UniProtKB/TrEMBL annotation:
GO terms for molecular function: metal ion binding; oxidoreductase activity. PANTHER family: 2-OXOGLUTARATE (2OG) AND FE(II)-DEPENDENT OXYGENASE SUPERFAMILY PROTEIN-RELATED (PTHR47990). SUPFAM superfamilies: Clavaminate synthase-like. Keywords: Iron, Metal-binding, Oxidoreductase. It comes from Papaver atlanticum. Signal peptide: none annotated. This is Fe2OG dioxygenase domain-containing protein. InterPro entries: DIOX_N, IPNS-like_FE2OG_OXY, IPNS-like_sf, Iron_ascorbate_oxido_reductase, Oxoglu/Fe-dep_dioxygenase_dom. Belongs to the iron/ascorbate-dependent oxidoreductase family.
Length: 355
């Protein structure tokens, strides 16, 4: 594959610019970002086993007893409280669909840069490379951010358009993840506060095809040594929860007890993590955990993430005790995050909304 043609944002000149910044060969606050980050977060990496939960009793894969269903729910709750991350198996998505999704992603991202960045199909205006934020937030990746409503409704396509297969594949994938996300959210909601049964419908009411989205990711091989630049900058997710499918290459790490934990990849598993909104909504019962993606100098990595998000006017109120956070809408939260990134070069997040 001709990487200069295919990966314009990551061609050699771009690599050199980023590398020079990291080595402080240019002046300015953005050049010290990585070094300041390493001072605050020592690069200590563990390989602790991320909780693995069998969802067969939860998704209807096989027969199960009431006791098994309750045990599954308890595992989801405990993992969300203790880790903020967990893996699931028997999640209801076939291996055939996951393999098909991976193959479709490869075809999509390996198109010439000018073609994939200016698509006139349902992917129109969804392509991103690096990051739209300041250079001190540069991530060695490219992605398509696709609202579910665009996948399912968009304009009729030419039957000879190769994107038809991609569209049907991600429609099936995203549809299953949407159902799974709402089921997980309901389990977590039922554990919060005395009015939990009524709260469980909150997510189905406020999170729709217009507000949730799928992100298809590609992390190209990076000639800069791992640790000098990230595939995805350390961050927390600004949603209720995220469901991730990743290939076998690996690179995902999460921060637990001051140490980075490497998530060993398994293409048959899905990874679920709590977002900022669920942490605030649950009054810190569940944890939105910082995570990152490391680069690889030999192999490209593909992943697909589903984000459970509410409408912009949805108000987040802390449940289950004296509130730790003031009320805020999802729109207000996003605006604050964007303002902080623009002014400070980084996301501040939930601490802005503490009482």
């Amino acid at each position: 594959m001709d990487k200069v043609q295919q990966d314009q944002p990551f061609e050699f000149n771009s690599c050199t610019t980023v590398f020079e910044n990291l080595l402080k060969k240019e002046k300015g606050p953005e050049t010290t970002m990585m070094f300041e980050y390493k001072k605050k977060h020592p690069c200590l990496v563990d390989n602790d086993q991320l909780p693995l939960i069998d969802l067969s009793s939860f998704t209807g894969v096989g027969s199960s007893t009431i006791l098994e269903k309750e045990r599954c729910k308890r595992q989801i709750i405990e993992a969300s409280k203790g880790w903020g991350f967990f893996q699931v198996v028997n999640h209801g998505i076939s291996n055939e669909l996951l393999k098909k999704l991976n193959a479709e992603q490869m075809k999509l991202f390996r198109q010439p840069y000018d073609k994939k960045s200016s698509s006139n199909s349902f992917l129109s205006n969804t392509y991103r490379s690096g990051t739209p934020t300041p250079r001190n937030q540069f991530s060695w990746s490219e992605a398509f951010h696709i609202p579910l409503s665009d996948i399912r409704s968009g304009n009729p396509q030419n039957p000879n358009n190769n994107n038809n297969t991609l569209r049907s594949t991600i429609d099936e994938f995203a549809g299953t993840l949407s159902e799974l996300a709402l089921k997980i959210a309901q389990v977590l909601a039922e554990n919060v506060g005395s009015d939990s049964k009524g709260l469980a419908g909150y997510f189905a009411e406020n999170c729709s095809e217009e507000t949730c989205y799928l992100r298809l990711n590609r992390y190209p091989p990076c000639p800069i040594s791992s640790g000098q630049v990230f595939g995805l900058m350390p961050h927390t997710d600004s949603d209720f929860l995220t469901i991730l499918y990743q290939d076998q290459v690996g690179g995902l790490q999460l921060l637990k007890d001051g140490r980075w934990v490497t998530v060993k990849p398994n293409p048959q598993y899905l990874i679920i993590n709590i977002g900022d909104l669920f942490q605030a909504w649950s009054n810190d019962l569940y944890k939105s955990v910082e995570h990152r993606v490391m680069t690889n100098n030999k192999f490209e990595r593909f992943s697909a993430a589903y984000f459970l998000c509410p409408s912009h006017d949805t108000v987040i109120r802390s449940k289950g005790g004296p509130p730790l956070y003031k009320r805020f809408s999802f729109g207000e939260f996003r605006e604050q995050v964007q303002e902080d990134v623009r002014k400070l070069g980084r996301k501040v997040g939930l601490s802005r909304f503490l009482l």
